[in-house]
Amino acid sequence: MLRHKVCRGIFGISQGSIATYSPTCPQLLHSNLAIKSLYPKRSAQTRQFSHTTTNKMTLQDPKGDYVNVASLRVNRGLYQFVENEVAPNTGVDVAHFWECLSNVVSKMAPRNEELLKKRDSLQKQIDEWHLARKGQEYDAAEYKQYLMDIGYLLPEGEAFKVTTSNVDPEIASIAGPQLVVPINNARYALNACNGRWQSLFDGLYGTNAVSETGGAQKAGGFNPRRALKVFEWVDNLLDEVMPLADGASWAQTKAFSVESEKLCIELTDGKKVAPKEDSVFAGYLGDAAKPTSVLIKNNNLHMELKFNADGAVGAEHHAHINDIQIESAITAIMDCEDSVTAVDAEDKVAVYKNWTGLMRGTLSASFQKGGKTLERVQNSDRVFKSPGGSEDVSLKGRSLLLVRNVGMHMYTDAVTTAGGDDIPEGFLDAFVTILAAIHDVKGNGKYANSVNGSVYIVKPKQHGPEEVAFTCELFTAVEQALDLPKNTVKIGVMDEERRTTINLYECIREAKERIVFINTGFLDRMGDEIHTSIEAGPVVALKNLRKVKWLPAYEAWNVDCGIAAGLVGTAQIGKGMWAAPDSMAEMLEQKIGHLKQGANTSWVPSPIAASLHVTHYHRVNVQETQEALKSRLRAPLDDILTPPLTDRADLNPEDVQKDLEAMAQSILGYVVRWIDMGVGCSKVPDIHNIGLMEDRATLRISSQHLANWLHHEIITKDQIKSAFEKMAAVVDEQNSSDPAYKAMVGTFEDNIAFQGALQLVFKGREVSNGYTEPVLHASRRKYKATNRN
Ligand SMILES: CC(=O)SCCNC(=O)CCNC(=O)[C@H](O)C(C)(C)COP(=O)(O)OP(=O)(O)OC[C@H]1O[C@@H](n2cnc3c(N)ncnc32)[C@H](O)[C@@H]1OP(=O)(O)O
Ligand SMILES: O=CC(=O)O
Ligand SMILES: [Mg+2]
Fold it and tell me: In what residue span(s) does the Malate synthase TIM barrel domain sit (predicted)?
């Protein structure tokens, strides 16, 4: 095995990249361009791999084969993929496509670099301000003035409203869950697309949403007692959100029929009632006298009650409802960013392949489950009879798909300039993902994604209005190149960097013709918060991380800016991820808060979570909430600007050690799978064995947290190393049943993942904005290079 044999500098694919991380060259580290320089010109070393999976690498072309086209060098595998799988039937000539990308690179790449340099320069000035005031009381007014003076906090212009057009109803008028999925996993991506409809019974039965007390345990086959609890839960929900006339309860229902275009419900005592509101009844299937399905509707969201007295579940239900299919993931984000590992051309092709497959309706995934081979494809639409029985009611069977491109700080060698420089990866993402979406825009695909002919791109990690304007300029350039009408491409702006938050209204203005969402990506935002104020002092302990002043103010401010800019009725005001995929009871209790705060969508990690979270949108009328918030004063900026710091005396060593170990464990649990297996989003059991979703954003928080404590000498380097070694054993144990997993214990010095995890902390202060990609990408590339066989 070749593993661990290459150079000792843990990041090096080549000597060039080791130099980038040399501790003797810290100025290189604290540069957004460090990510770019991690990918040195390596035309002689670049390898092209097969595209079968991200984990299996077949060396196809040891010379690192590029096609020279326009003024670019395009990885041959990528070139062929675009030519053979993306471009056909789009009306776009391949040579023209690369020519246009080449022009955009020549014209816009220098500004991409300038914008990154500006991030570094502002950070440097903030660092200097804090250093100059070491030991002094924090002066909020002086700080704010300084941020204005250096152009970090910008003045706001006149009031305006967004004018985005051709927005699909899933975004403009249906409030509901937004699912996020790593696009490079076809099985999950298809599942997310089909997550539009889910079984509510399964969601409740299979999770902790319904307690196991009173003999209602999950284990050991179908449990009728548990089923009764599920029915009770659903009856209570329906009583609340779609009440029946005459004070009747859904718990009393016995049989359903359709009479004179209305739903007629027979109760257990023989009485007949209808829903209180006629509009609840939306359609049915089967005979009017004894439908097989009844479609009900509330707050623009549907549920299909499916009857079968002979079904295992239906036999137990008081009205023989065998299942309830609930409209769940109204939109889904296909993620090319923080939940995937895509470190080279091979990985990028895998990412683009799945998105193209979804846009063409050809994606399929075959996998083993429950001893069977299953084949998953996109679902068709659902068709019902109208209440009168004479017409069809057709409902989308799939979530509206958005695609998250990478941020501006990423560079790729999948395409380089003629001189061998890596190009901004976001440029490539925009060109390829939009080209693929033309299949949908032109109606070539098997299914319609956007019925209004829009392409939805989520842009992460932008810092302030200038960068948003830059992205919009990029989208305009792609539209022109691909002959798409102006503003076909819509933008979702992640509000996840501090400079975007505090200038959010101006960010929205820059995108006012194409914006379709703002979303509080509070995980990245927390990482950026810690990094930005690293010189100000030690950050609070873990238990207080969410109790800090800036966080609720940021959440409220985002809603306030969105409402003020006229997003209501046009775009989403979204809230962040529920990062505990197995804790559904807790999610049901807490995530309704997002709607009450004025959000019309919020992120969920799985289709099951979507099926439960959607019940919140049945309970809360978001339009009314947003209307009521229109008159509120904007949340205080001073609170948002307050750094999340604590007195070092408040950090007692025992608690610090516990936090250190908890963070070491989550970092290692995530990083080892990222580097060794190419898994970009993992469920990692925390110290209490609760599975938590970890992605690059949660990694950014933990690594920045520890980097801050190291910098302020709350913990030492040795202490960190010991904690990581101790926790490596825990992580090894947690993964011991996975045959593909390689243990870290016993290999610390040479283990790329282990060393990478440590460097995320040790270099956390220097790396621009606390991003994790430089270390992750270099480590993964090194792992791939050393484990190729
Ligand atoms: C800060 C941010 O940027 S957040 C955005 C990035 N994060 C994400 O995208 C989170 C996406 N979620 C996930 O990747 C996963 O849910 C994880 C990694 C958290 C957990 O994955 P697992 O441990 O495999 O989940 P688990 O075993 O509980 O469930 C697997 C089943 O759920 C499905 N599933 C889980 N997550 C998703 C998802 N996001 N989309 C679609 N299906 C999903 C799988 O398809 C699988 O079902 P199948 O066997 O029928 O195919
Ligand atoms: O992208 C989401 C986040 O929270 O970060
Ligand atoms: Mg993020």
Answer: 401-635
What is the per-residue pLDDT across 252-307, written as a single tens digit (0 to 9) for each?
999 999 999 999 999 999 999 999 999 999 999 999 999 999 999 999 999 999 99
Catalytic annotation present for 404:
yes
Question: CA-to-CA distance for 143 and 180, rounded, in angstroms?
Answer: 37
d(CA 422, CA 17): 13
Structure tokens at 116: 């990154």
Q: How many A from CA of 273 to the centre of ligand 1?
A: 41
pLDDT tens readout for residues 427-470: 999 999 999 999 999 999 999 999 999 999 999 999 999 999 99
Fold of 1-44+647-789: Malate Synthase G; Chain: A; Domain 4 (1.20.1220)
Pocket of ligand 1 (CB under 6 A): 179-182, 187-188, 191-192, 195, 335, 338-339, 369, 521, 523, 577, 581, 605-607, 681-683, 693, 695, 697
Q: Whose CA is nearest to atom 2 of ligand 2?
A: 521
Q: Taking the domains of the chain in order of start, what are their residue ranges?
A: 1-44+647-789, 65-201+329-368+397-643, 202-327
CATH number of 202-327: 2.170.170.11
pTM, entire model: 0.93
Quote the distance between the C-alpha of residue 376 and its chain's center.
22
Q: Which two tokens stand for residue 760?
A: 């995320």
Architecture of domain 65-201+329-368+397-643: Alpha-Beta Barrel (3.20)
Per the annotation, the verdict on 695 as an active-site residue is yes
**Contact call for residues 387 and 281 (beta carbons, < 8 A):** yes
